[in-house]
Amino acid sequence: MKHMPQDTMLTTDITRPDPLLVAQGLTVTFATDQGPLRALDAVDLTLAPGETLAVVGESGSGKSVLSLALMGLLPGTARIEADSLTFEGRDLTAITERDFRALRGTGMSMIFQEPATALNPVRRIGDQIVEAIRLHEDIPVRKARTRAIEALAATGIPAPAERAEAFPHQLSGGMRQRALIAMALVHRPRLLIADEPTTALDVTVQAQILDLIRDLARETGTATLFITHDMGVVAEMADRVAVLYAGRLVETAPSAALFSSPEHPYTVGLLGSMPQMNARGEPMLPIQGTVPDPRVMPPGCHFHPRCPFAAGACLTDRPALRQVRPGQMSACHNAPLIETLGGAT
Asked: Any idea what DSSP says for residue 285?
C-alpha cells in the first residue's frame, strides 16, 4: 500500500506558496555487516520558499542522514526510497549524479558541521570559493576572485581580501564557519541546509553566526533547513519545527506552538532539558535512557521505553502522525497531551 502524505495541512493551505521541497515517505536504509539499518523511516516534510524549518532531535535521530539524503551525498551503502522527493517540482530520485552536482551549489547548498574538515586544509580560502563559483559559472578567474571577496565581505569577515589569501588553519573557528557560509551562499541558492553549523563555536560566535545565516537568508529569499539538537537555536531561528526520534517524525508544529504546547512526550522531554525553560530553582527534566539501536527497535511507539506515559497501545501499536490542532501534528497515542493526561505534562 502506498504511503500517504501526512503533512497535508502544510501542503494544501492556499495561503502558502507552492512548496520548494517535498518529501513524502522518505526512507533511508544502510547495508551493514549486521544487516539492514533503517536510519529514516517514512519521513514527510515540506519547506516553502523563504521559510526556516528546524529539524531537531538527539544524536542518532536521523537528522544528518536527512540532510545528506536531500543533498544526494549519501554513500553507496545507502538505499533511498520515497513516495515523493521533489525540489521545485523536480524528482530528486530520478535525476543523474551529473544533474545533482549541477543542482548542488546553485539550487541547494549546505553548511557542514565542522568547518575544519569541510575546508581543504592545503588550499587558500579564496581559491576554494573561486573553485565553487567556476564549477557552475564560466567566468574568468579574476572576476570569480572578486565575487569570492565580496561573498566573504557579506559574512562580516574583516579584511576579506586578506582572509581570502589565508589557509583554513590561519583563521579562527568563527571565521572558518563564515567562509563556509560565503561558499554556500555565493550562488544565492533557493535552499540552504545548515547541519549543526554552530556546534563547535563559543556562545558569542554562535550568536553571530545564527544572526548571519538568518539575515543572509532573508536578504536572498533562501529557504533554510536548520539541523540541530539545540532547542535554544530552534527558538531563535525557526518558523516551523520537525522533531525526529529514532528515524521517525514524531511532531511538526509552528515554532511558537511547539514551545507553548508540545504534543509529543519526546518534545516535552527536549524542552524540559533546557535550563531556560525551567523556573529558577526547578530541576531540569532530562529524558531518561538513550536512543535505541536502529537494528533492534522496540515494538509499538519507538519512544515508549523512555516515555513516562507509555501504556497499552504504546507498547504494541505504532502511532500515526496525525493532526491534533491546526498546523500541529503528533505521533502519540495520548495526544492531545493535556486533554488526555489531565495536565500531567
From this structure: -
pTM of the model: 0.87
338: phi > 0 → left, psi -120 to 50 → alpha, else beta; which? alpha
Encode 143-161 in three state secondary structure.
HHHHHHHHHHHHCCCCCHH
β-pair type (248-254, 322-325): unpaired
- Strand, helix or coil at 17? coil
What are 116's three cell numbers? Answer: 575544519
User: Hey, CA dihedral for 55, 187, 96, 141, is it positive or negative?
Assistant: negative
Residue type, 242: A
- In the chain, the domains with their CATH numbers are 8-107+192-341 (3.40.50.300), 109-186 (no CATH)
Tell me the per-residue pLDDT of 293-343, one tens digit each, with 9 for 90 and over: 888 899 999 999 999 999 999 999 999 999 999 999 999 999 998 887 764
By DSSP bridging, strand 223-228 and strand 191-195 are parallel
pLDDT digits (tens, 9 = 90+) for 182-239: 998 888 899 999 998 887 677 888 888 888 888 878 887 889 999 998 888 899 899 9
